[in-house]
Write a structure and sequence with these properties.
Number of helices of chain B: 20
Structural class of chain B: mainly alpha
Order of helices and strands of chain B: HHEEHHHHHHHHHHHHHHHHHH
Shape of chain A: flat
Number of domains of chain B: 1
Shape of chain B: globular
Largest sheet of chain A: none
Number of strands of chain B: 2
Strand content of chain A: under 5%
Order of helices and strands of chain A: HHHHH
Oligomer: heterodimer
Number of strands of chain A: 0
Strand order of the largest sheet of chain B: 1-2
Structural class of chain A: mainly alpha
Largest interface: A-B, 26 and 27 residues
Chain lengths: 146, 488
């Protein structure tokens, strides 16, 4: 039994080998057969296009991440809506109400982040009711105030 | 019949969970409209939601008694409400309610009083409940995620505190990693059985030949994920950091609620789908349990921070609870259930005292901060002593009962060496718990400012202390409740 089970995966293993050989072979062959005339421009990370300036590892505004999270929220919603729309006729009223409930829950999340100012990109960094700017609360380790 | 997809039983079983979800969303939205000084209303709303869910569960239980059924199966076997699940439901409800009571004043002092705290606690409760009553891999996985993601956020709730941020990030990264391993194990279980239903998986595994390497791999990966969630050695590294950095009310919550939920999940997995492979995981479990007790107890000795000390003591308690599964007989499973119930009260009580120590100018989680508590607030000091005695397992308190059943089950199942080791570690535990007691009673206080005993903290302390003593002095009704919760 396990014998045939693993034989199913043999094709994939073969495929993997072919891929490694093909890709690796191309790099090795072009290295062995090709001409090498390195120049400053050729050695730059992007041979064509803009000359890179500065470091790519800079801090992004946290808002980009928030938008990414909001995107996932609605992406998942779409993922659910597609199969629902396909079998909508079979589900009838129950399916409609069920999806309405789901959309309301997602909508509640949307209302929350709207109110929190996630979608507001023009204001200062402190958007929403929770974005207070107060310093850290007073508090020290053993023995009294800092 | 509401429809062919959704029966009346489905609705009945999910009613408490639906209520909690609606209250969670409601708290999240209404809090946006509240002014800062009315924030406590969010806490009240969340408590009302928990109350409603409790009443609902009470009604379901009386219906089940009348109809003389022991379990309700819903959603074609994806959810099963049995005595096991109901028992854990009450533990979750209590721990969530206490976490809310502790937070009101504490979050004000931390200047991080937001309604999201209460909404997230309710969402985590929903996840925990479904984790305890789910019998399907997909349901279990989704509810596990709902629970832990809520707790990740709550761990980092003190946004301006570096320790809180660090704790949340560590917990998130390690947690995500362990969830990945768990998901891999679940996929192996599915591959072995072609089903996500726990009982069908159990059947498929029992059909495999003994010592099947695929079963062993599935056992190891699933166990790794589960051990991480309960915080057993060698997957405990996140626990002291997360416990120390999190807001103290959340430390109290996650040391009880999500931990009990993880144990419910672990018990279901080990008793049902992995049950037939008991020979394969028993040595593994014994090793993990002994290592957990050893490291938890020995590392706690050298801690100077109360939250960190209690975190290591929490690890050692995980070791004791796992011993109940090692013996695997009725007494052991009964022991696990009563241990978790007792642990909920005594541990939350101990953390409640730490919460009370927090003032505007003092974090209050160092052992030295407790100096002379006896002279400043005798009530808090005496209660803390009761909780610590109970955690150590000294007879008139409830902690003794949990340890008694665990040790008894070990002796019944002929694990004498393990029983001796477990008893010896109680002596070590006594030493580090009494370090706190000694500081509270024998040392002069550094200053004379009193701890904050806000109404919420008073109620929490009262309830936990009363239950710690009641279960210890009159355990009979609780033993009877617990003896019905034993899984097959």
């Amino acid at each position: 039994m396990p014998n045939t089970y693993f034989q199913n995966y043999l094709v994939i293993l073969l495929m993997l080998g072919v891929v490694v050989l093909l890709a690796g072979g191309m790099i090795v062959l072009s290295y062995l057969l090709g001409q090498h005339r390195p120049s400053r421009v050729k050695l730059s990370p992007y041979e064509c296009g803009m000359v890179p300036t500065g470091d790519a590892r800079q801090r992004f505004s946290v808002k980009f991440y928030l938008v990414a999270m909001v995107f996932i929220l609605f992406d998942v919603e779409i993922v659910f809506l597609y199969p629902w729309a396909v079998i909508f006729h079979e589900l009838r009223m129950f399916g409609f109400l069920e999806m309405l409930l789901f959309l309301l829950l997602v909508g509640a999340g949307f209302a929350y982040l709207w109110k929190m100012g996630v979608l507001d990109w023009t204001g200062s960094d402190t958007g929403g009711p929770a974005g207070g700017t107060g310093g850290s609360p007073a508090g020290g380790r053993a023995g009294g105030p800092e | 019949m509401l429809s062919e997809y959704f029966s009346a039983v489905d609705f009945l079983v999910l009613k408490p969970v639906i209520l909690l979800t609606l209250f969670g969303v409601g708290v999240m939205l209404t809090d946006l409209l509240l002014e800062e000084r009315h924030r406590y209303l969010s806490a009240v709303t969340a408590l009302v939601g928990l109350g409603f869910a409790g009443v609902q569960m009470w009604m379901i239980q009386s219906q089940m008694r009348q109809a003389e059924v022991n379990e309700l199966e819903a959603f074609r076997g994806a959810v099963r409400l049995d005595h096991f699940g109901i028992f854990f439901f009450w533990i979750f409800l209590i721990s969530s309610a206490i976490a809310i009571l502790l937070a009101i004043r504490y979050l004000e002092i931390e200047q991080e009083h937001h309604g999201e705290y209460y909404a997230l606690i309710l969402f985590a409760t929903v996840g925990m409940i479904l984790l305890a009553i789910g019998t399907d891999l997909i349901t279990l996985f989704v509810s596990l995620e709902l629970m832990v993601i809520s707790v990740y956020i709550l761990t980092g709730f003190l946004r301006r505190d570096r320790r809180s941020n660090e704790a949340a990030l560590k917990y998130l990264l390690l947690g995500a990693f362990s969830t990945g391993i768990l998901a891999y194990g679940m996929s192996l279980l599915y591959g072995l059985s072609n089903s996500t239903n726990l009982e069908e998986i159990a059947f498929a595994i029992s059909q495999r030949p003994a010592g099947d390497p695929v079963v062993l791999l599935a056992v190891i990966t699933v166990a790794t994920g589960l051990f991480f969630k309960v915080g057993a050695v060698p997957f405990h590294q996140w626990l002291p950091d997360a416990y120390e950095g999190a807001p103290t009310s959340i430390t109290a919550f996650m040391s009880v609620g999500p931990k009990a939920a993880a144990f419910a999940f672990l018990l279901r997995m080990f008793m049902l789908p992995l049950g037939p492979a008991r020979e394969q995981w028993l040595p593994l479990l014994i090793g993990v349990a002994v290592a957990t007790m050893t490291l938890g107890n020995l590392a706690a000795v050298s801690q100077s921070n109360v939250k960190r000390l209690l975190a290591y003591s929490a690890i050692s308690h995980v070791g004791y609870i796992l011993l109940g599964l090692v013996s695997g007989n009725d007494t052991g499973l009964k022991g696990i259930a009563i241990y978790l119930l007792v642990y909920a009260f005594m541990n939350m009580g101990a953390f409640a005292v730490v919460v009370a120590m927090r003032r505007r100018d003092l974090i209050g989680d160092e052992i030295d901060d407790m100096a002379g508590l006896m002279y400043k607030s005798p009530t808090a000091a005496v209660l803390m002593m009761i909780f610590l005695l109970s955690l150590a397992g000294i007879p008139p308190t409830a902690g003794f009962l949990g340890k008694y059943f665990i040790f008894l089950s070990l002796i019944e199942s002929q694990h004498f060496t393990l029983a001796v080791i477990a008893v010896l570690y109680v002596a070590v535990a006594l030493y580090y718990y009494f370090r706190i007691v000694a500081v509270m009673f024998m040392r002069e206080p550094v200053d004379w400012e009193l701890p904050t005993l806000a109404p919420g903290i008073r109620i929490a302390l009262g309830v936990t202390a009363a239950m710690t003593l009641i279960i210890g002095l009159y355990p009979e009704p609780f033993i009877q409740i617990v003896s019905r919760t034993v899984l097959p």
